[in-house]
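Subject: Interface between my chains keeps coming out wrong

I've been trying for a while to get a sensible model of this assembly. When I model each chain on its own everything looks fine, but I need the whole thing in one frame so I can look at the contacts. Pasting all components below, labels as-is. Any help appreciated, I'm running out of ideas.
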Amino acid sequence: MNDAALERLREAITEPDLSGTRFSVLSVAGRGGMGTVYVAEDSALSRKVALKVLESSSELLQREARVLAGLEHPGIVPVHDSGTLPDGRAWYAMKLVQGERLDEALRRPLGLSERLRIFLQICETVAFAHARGVLHRDLKPQNIMIGSFGEVLVLDWGLARLPGDGDSGRVGTPGFAAPEADADDVYSLGAILNCMTPLPFAVQAIARKATAARSERYASVAALAADVSRFCEGAAVSAVPEGLWRKSARFLSRHRVAAGIVGAYLAGRGLIFFFTGR
Amino acid sequence: MNRILIGILVGGALGVLDGLTAWFTPEVRPMLAGIVAGSTVKGLVAGILIGLFARKVRNLSAVLIFGTCVGGLFALGIAVMQGGHYFAIILPGSLVGLLTGFATVRYGPAPQPSL
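Reply #2:
Try treating it as a single job with all components included. I did that and got this:
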């Protein structure tokens, strides 16, 4: 038996039995270490949905479904339904998002303003969750989806910590998880910002501050987002101590129209002075 | 911000600057305050006229030419009153008109289409 035949057999065995539900599997959207996401048809509403089935502990998936259901936000995929398969595996159905992951999107040349727009939307979603006491704890480009209308969605809340949860030890993805024992979404967001190269000096400084030692890091996601917003508006950012030279450069950049007109006048006046002596 | 207001602001600001450059001509330094005041008024009036013109005309080249001519004509009037320094007054005045015209078209709202 060749590899392709084995793979088909494995898919047939692991394909969820959804006979008692209104869903039927159409295809596999993706496989992860903990479960599989299928594209499924919702026969009641005649629409496609994403159906996540966990291979091992059903409690983890049900918990993720509850986290998502409790966070109603445009940046978080809404959950439609959840349940348990006859073989004991848990599943939940959510909105099927058409688009591409952030790590894929960043392979294309995106303008700085577009990259920062995406980043600020991620921050807004995470800050919303934090305001409700939920920490994502596994933020990385692979868990961010850019929808076909430019909407930004934060996925995979399976490792999220809810209010009242105890410390579950080190979690997250190396390179994006904070070095200290308890995960910090601010650090992960700084690591994501670092992936959005090339970045101007001030934004690099913001990313450095977000991934610095805990005591020097931004106190909250809102503070991090506020600094990025200030950069977008041409204002000073807290991550960069400004000297006179940098302050002047930022002032000229912010008022480049006025500076350009005055500069053009002075250049013209200088030429006239040079040739006429008056 | 409408085009007339942009014309007033840019024309006035460049008028002040234009007047201040008289400091580099030592023989007129004692009259600097009067020169700055006259140059500012000239810039403000030219700015109003250029803004009014730019409100009606979409074409950048036409506004630039109009601005240069208005700035130059006002400066010519002052040069005639001074009885000399024609180039030293007319050329910077024309430059003020040119830049004011550019600013009104580039940064003002698009003119309303006539019905």
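Reply #3:
Confirming on my end. Residues 32-56 of chain B form the longest helix (25 residues).
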